[in-house]
Specification:
Layout (H helix, E strand, L loop, with lengths): L10 H20 L14 H16 L6 H14 L6 E3 L1 H8 L10 E4 L6 E6 L4 H4 L7 E5 L2 E2 L5 H8 L7 E7 L2 E7 L9 E4 L6 E5 L6 H8 L1 H7 L3 E4 L8 H8 L5 E8 L5 E6 L10 E5 L6 H11 L3 E5 L7 E7 L5 E10 L15 E2 L7 H8 L7
Parallel strand pairs: 9-10, 10-13, 13-14, 14-17
Antiparallel strand pairs: 1-16, 2-3, 3-4, 4-5, 4-6, 6-7, 8-9, 11-12, 11-16, 15-16
Helix pairs in contact: 1-2, 1-3, 9-10
Length: 385
């Protein structure tokens, strides 16, 4: 870690914040502050401890601190540290989360991070402001605006980098031994959720940008007739696909195969909820290869994993991060909210796509991640046409 980001924190402050976090969890789950639940009478010890700690920080800490900001920092730390997808969102970020749409703007950075690490660039959208700024996979985003990213969740980072206009966002980047601060513009990144290309003498390519609602229906309408007419194999490019819903990913997967169970989500208590693809598979007869990598995140991992599991497609590229899970948002009374992972996905073989990620059938060297390199590895796996 860069020495500039190292800071010695007074021991008593660490103790106070740790105790505050514990008190918060006790308050959250014992007082049942989530809407729709009942409150118990009186104030339990956890709430009394929270009140006492806030009073100590307000009156005795060497610097004058805003108690609300101090408490929010503790809440963020304890929730964000659970896993990559769980997150505490303050009031402003909760409003942004609820208002997300396919028309939002972005920098073109695809980020992955775990708690206590800087946000790492795992993908850059071609033609985006990030690519034009010379940002590369492997670079670290150490700060956004004036906020250090170490304690942020992945959701926080993505919400702050995104927007609804083209107003630039200030970021600090670590690239090898070089540090630079840039004003990174935002832009509308994808006019459509997918792009389909068919070049004579080559397999057709279906590039998925995000798993938006109606994606599968649009593909049935616009892509399926061309594939049936041309009788070509298909390359499914998921390398920079990090957005969308698991429900749409399930519907999309059903275009390629039909099965009573393609895996299950394991919930608390070991309860398993099976996932089925029961509709007619319109692309069942089309030979498929999948391109994937570190920027293949969430719903895209689901698709690649299921197609690989059922031997419906070979996966080429690099390992994926392993974050196929359902999250649920719990609104709090102050209009902030908590995102919690409530189910993680495993394939029928028992292979988990949570934490472990997906290993490709064929590895494409990191030093050459070009389309040409992928195509050279893919052609021997597909039937001639």
């Amino acid at each position: 870690m860069d020495a500039r980001f190292k800071m010695k924190i007074p021991r008593y402050r660490v103790v106070l914040l740790a105790a505050l976090a514990v008190a918060f969890l006790f308050f959250l789950f014992q007082m049942r502050i989530l809407p729709g639940t009942s409150q118990r009478g009186g104030f339990p010890k956890g709430f009394q401890l929270l009140d006492a700690l806030m009073d100590l920080i307000r009156n005795d800490y060497l610097e004058e601190r805003d108690p609300v900001q101090t408490a929010e920092g503790a809440y963020r730390g304890i929730v964000n540290s659970l896993d990559p997808l769980s997150s505490y969102l303050g009031k402003d970020l909760t409003a942004r989360y609820i208002a997300r749409s396919d028309k939002d703007t972005g920098t073109g950075l695809i980020i992955f991070k775990r708690y206590g690490t800087f946000a790492q660039v795992v993908g850059v959208i071609p033609g985006s402001p990030a690519e034009k700024a010379g940002i590369k996979p492997g670079d670290l985003v150490s700060a956004i605006g004036r906020r250090n990213t170490l304690s942020m969740s992945l959701t926080e980072v993505n919400l702050i980098l995104g927007g609804t206009d083209e107003k630039p966002v200030e970021v600090k980047l670590l690239s090898g031994n070089e540090t630079r601060e840039i004003s990174l513009a935002r832009a509308v990144l994808f006019p459509r959720a997918f792009a389909f290309t068919s070049t004579p003498g080559r397999p057709a390519v279906l590039k998925i940008n995000r798993f938006s609602p109606s994606l599968a229906a649009d593909i049935v309408k616009d892509v399926l007739p061309a594939l049936k007419r041309q009788k070509k194999p298909l390359i499914l490019d998921l390398r920079n696909c990090a957005e969308g819903s698991l429900e749409e990913a399930q519907t999309f997967t059903n275009l390629f195969l039909n099965a009573a169970s393609v895996g299950s989500f394991q919930k608390r208590g070991g309860i398993k909820e099976s996932v089925a693809c029961l509709a007619e598979a319109g692309l069942a007869s089309v030979p498929v290869a999948v391109w994937a990598g570190p920027a293949t995140i969430g719903p895209a991992e689901f698709v690649a994993g299921v197609l690989q599991e059922f031997r419906r497609a070979k996966v080429l590229g690099l390992p994926t991060p392993g974050v196929v899970a359902r999250t649920e948002r719990f609104p709090l009374r102050d209009e902030s909210s908590i995102l919690l992972v409530t189910g993680v996905f495993s394939l029928p073989s028992g292979r988990s796509l949570w934490g472990q990620g997906l290993e490709p059938n064929v590895t494409v060297p990191v030093k050459d991640q070009s389309d040409k390199a992928y195509l050279e590895e893919t052609l021997p796996l597909l039937p001639k046409f």
